[in-house]
Specification:
Order of helices and strands: HHHHHEE
Mean pLDDT: 76
Strand content: under 5%
Oligomer: single chain
Low-confidence stretches: none
Helix content: 40-55%
Number of helices: 5
Distance between the termini: 46 Å
Largest sheet: 2 strands, parallel
Radius of gyration: 22 Å
Structural class: mainly alpha
């Protein structure tokens, strides 16, 4: 795919200098720069990194809520690229259709899932 971008003179000069030094085309330098930017952007926009300064800052009187929530958010990040299996997907779909917030499963990593309203589903067995 082709994209056309107007660059200010100072950026064009930097682009040409880096391309010459690295023995790359200007297109290759731009692709690498965009890839690095997107990777950095994705890392800074994770839910946990956006809220980590706020977790545990305000108390509710129940001391373990922020600790449990931090673990859930970290685990959600950790498993964000893991595909959902059929059994988990079935539980999610049924909970959506029937407006159920509590489920029963022996799946120890089910706690990483949320419903379409972004609410955590509660596993009654609490195997985690």
């Amino acid at each position: 795919m082709m994209v056309s971008v107007r660059l200010p003179k100072y950026l064009m000069e930097k682009l040409e200098l880096i391309a010459k030094r690295e023995k790359l085309t200007k297109s290759e330098v731009i692709k690498k720069a965009l890839d690095e930017y997107f990777n950095k952007y994705a890392k800074t926009r994770r839910p946990y990194s956006l809220g980590k300064d706020l977790f545990g800052k305000y108390g509710s009187g129940r001391g373990n809520l922020s600790v449990k929530y931090k673990k859930k958010v970290r685990d959600n990040q950790k498993y964000s690229d893991v595909p959902m299996d059929l059994a988990d997907a079935t539980l999610i779909v049924i909970s959506e259709k029937e407006n159920i917030k509590e489920i029963v499963t022996i799946d120890s990593d089910f706690y990483i899932y949320r419903n379409i309203r972004n609410e955590w589903l509660v596993n009654i067995f609490k195997v985690y």
